[in-house]
Design brief:
CATH superfamily of the largest domain: Nucleic acid-binding proteins
CATH architecture of the largest domain: Beta Barrel
Order of helices and strands: HHHEEEHHEEEEHHHEEEEHEEHEEHHH
Distance between the termini: 54 Å
Number of domains: 4
Structural class: alpha+beta
CATH class of the largest domain: Mainly Beta
CATH topology of the largest domain: OB fold (Dihydrolipoamide Acetyltransferase, E2P)
Strand order of the largest sheet: 1-2-3-5-4
Number of helices: 13
């Protein structure tokens, strides 16, 4: 039997033993009074008053020492150590705990204290099995030095991480933090626009005629109407119709779908924020965008200074403004407007930009811009 299959069999055997001991391995609910970070931040008050806490989380490490066990559990807010002593929880409950594995979810009740090494820990008085995991996690070895998390042998297999995103979220806290940050950014953008009188709307996802961008759509069929419909590639045209109808400021966070190639910056399904305002021109929208991004950064990060792919960037307005063709001329050393079609095609090939015979001047300039200018913006 393969080692992995043996692990699965061992976990199923433990599940069966739990059931034979009268333990419900998948109960419906558990009363949580505190989360991990709340226990840590409020430790002094909790410890002084000996207030009981009730915390639920996934077991991320276990260390057995005879009649006692130490473990770390992780909830949405972070990790906290728990301490289980056989003389406190009783022989049966201690035997139940020894049937648990990394990846199982438990709920513990007890009081907080500091160990001799200074780590805030929950002294467990009772616990409940909340979920017996049947598949092992790719748990990494890690330790905390102050507020710094040091990881050994990290889970970095990109194929597995993206195909099993839930596993990535379990073992890589920085990924969960990115999810939270995204939510905070969307909230900040929405607040910014709402405060300036923009109306948030919803436009159709299924469209009889797709438009607003140049892209290949996904096609579906409406059985009742017996017509083909398209998943939207953009919400632009419907938002503009609202402007025509009398709304002066509108916006939408829309899910768009484009049946085209995929790479690290293009996905067939993506979220787009699009906003329109009457009686202004593109310079006003540029200023609005600068202010919106800077305000979102301040609200989410507390600063407009960020590090992006190793480059320090200050998002505070005003931003440098440059025209597309001028930026292209800076990088290639020639005004592309002065080139013939053949010369423009040769320029693309010199910069390793793939072009085909049916590609027009505008498309060639656009691809050249993507390859030689965008990486330096």
């Amino acid at each position: 039997m393969r080692p992995y299959d043996q692990l699965l069999q061992n976990r199923r055997e433990k599940l069966q033993k739990l059931k034979e001991m009268g333990v419900e391995p998948y109960p419906y609910r558990f009363e949580v009074t505190h989360r991990a970070q709340e226990v840590k931040h409020g430790f002094e008050a909790l410890s002084a008053a000996q207030d009981p806490v009730s915390v639920a989380g996934r077991i991320m490490s276990i260390r057995e020492h005879g009649k006692v066990c130490f473990a770390h559990i992780r909830d949405e807010t972070g990790r906290i150590q728990i301490y289980i002593k056989r003389d406190v929880v009783g022989d049966r409950e201690f035997s139940v705990f020894k049937l648990l594995d990394i990846g199982d979810i438990i709920g513990v009740r007890g009081t907080a204290f500091r160990t001799r090494t200074g780590e805030i820990t929950i002294g467990v008085e009772s616990f409940e099995v909340l979920c017996k995991s049947l598949r092992p996690l790719p748990i990494v070895k890690e330790k905390m030095e102050g507020d710094r998390r040091i990881v050994y042998d990290p889970f970095t297999d990109k194929e597995q991480r993206y195909r099993q995103r839930y596993v990535d979220l379990i073992v890589n806290p920085e990924v969960r933090e990115a999810f939270r940050k995204r939510t905070e950014v969307v909230r900040a953008l929405r607040t910014f626009l709402d405060e300036r009188g923009f109306l948030e709307v919803e436009t159709p996802v299924l469209q009889p005629i797709y438009g607003g961008a140049s892209a290949r759509p996904f096609v579906t069929h409406h059985n009742t109407l017996d017509v083909d419909l398209y998943l939207r590639i953009s919400n632009e045209l419907y938002l503009k119709r609202l402007i025509v109808g009398g709304f002066e400021r509108v916006y939408e966070f829309s899910r768009n779908f484009r049946n085209e190639g995929m790479d690290r910056s293009h996905n067939p399904e993506f979220t787009l924020l699009e906003a329109y305002q009457a009686y202004v021109d593109y310079t006003d929208i540029m200023q609005l965008t600068e202010e919106m991004i800077a305000q979102a950064a301040r609200e989410v990060l507390g600063t407009t200074r960020i590090s992006y792919q190793g480059t320090e960037v200050d998002l505070a307005p005003p931003w440098r403004r440059v025209r597309m063709l001028e930026a292209l001329e800076e990088r290639v050393g020639v005004d592309v407007r002065e080139l013939s079609d053949g010369e423009l095609r040769e320029l693309c090939l010199r910069h390793e930009v793939e072009v085909d015979g049916g590609m027009g001047r505008g498309k060639m300039m656009d691809k050249l811009f993507d390859e030689v200018v965008k990486p330096h913006l």
